[in-house]
Structure formats: structure tokens, C-alpha cells
Design goal:
This protein has 107 residues and is of the alpha/beta class. Helix content is 20%, strand content 45%. It contains two helices and nine strands; from the N terminus they run βαββββαββββ. Strand 8 (97-98) and strand 9 (105-106) form a beta hairpin. The longest helix is centred in the first third of the chain and has 14 residues, at 7-20.
Length: 107
């Protein structure tokens, strides 16, 4: 499978990278955290490691380490605004349960 992005997410990442002035894409990963076990991690990427997986969608590169890929394969990254709140959303087909606050998940 792969990691994909909506138009809104790609546009937001391009805006962030442009304002930052450098970077080749966005790293999507997971870490152990929260009440359900795993949390998403997003960070800008300046260099790709040899073992990284690189996906490109809507002209934006998404870089994923191999360990994280097990948990997020097939995920679509979205960006949404709801009133004064805005943020990235993760449409992950592997999620079996999420915590009530939406900050963590398990597969």
C-alpha cells in the first residue's frame, strides 16, 4: 500500500515548507504514547535516511521509517479546519481503537 494525502493536507505542508525556507517533505511516524498505545509524529525532513520509505502525493513527499510503516500503511493524511480549530487528521485503516481525546490509537 502507501501513504497518501488530500489536496488540503498537501497544500498545508507546502505552505509550511515554504515558510520554513527549507526541507524536502514531511516525516510521518508513530511513537509509543497515550492511553491507547501509539501516537502520530509529524516533522519536517531535510534529509532522507537509506532505510526510509518515500511516498509522493500531490507533489509533496511523505517520508516514513520502516518500523512506523507497520502501523500506518494505507493511511491518508488530511488537513481540516473546524471553527477556530485546525489540524492534520489521520485516516488510518489499521486502527482498531482510539482514546477518547483522539491523541492515541492501537492496531
Amino acid at each position: 500500500m502507501a501513504i497518501t494525502m488530500t489536496d488540503a493536507a498537501a497544500e498545508r505542508v507546502r505552505d509550511f515548507l515554504q515558510k520554513r525556507g527549507r526541507g524536502i517533505g514531511l516525516r510521518l511516524g508513530v511513537r509509543t504514547s497515550g492511553c491507547s498505545g501509539m501516537a502520530y509524529v509529524l516533522e519536517f525532513v531535510d534529509d532522507v535516511e537509506d532505510t526510509d520509505l518515500v511516498f509522493e502525493d500531490h507533489g509533496v513527499k511523505v517520508i516514513v521509517d520502516q518500523k512506523s510503516m507497520v502501523y500506518i500503511d494505507g493511511t491518508e493524511l488530511d488537513f481540516a479546519k473546524d471553527g477556530l480549530n485546525e489540524g492534520f487528521k489521520f485516516n488510518n485503516p489499521n486502527v482498531k481503537d482510539e482514546c477518547g481525546c483522539g491523541e492515541s490509537f492501537n492496531v
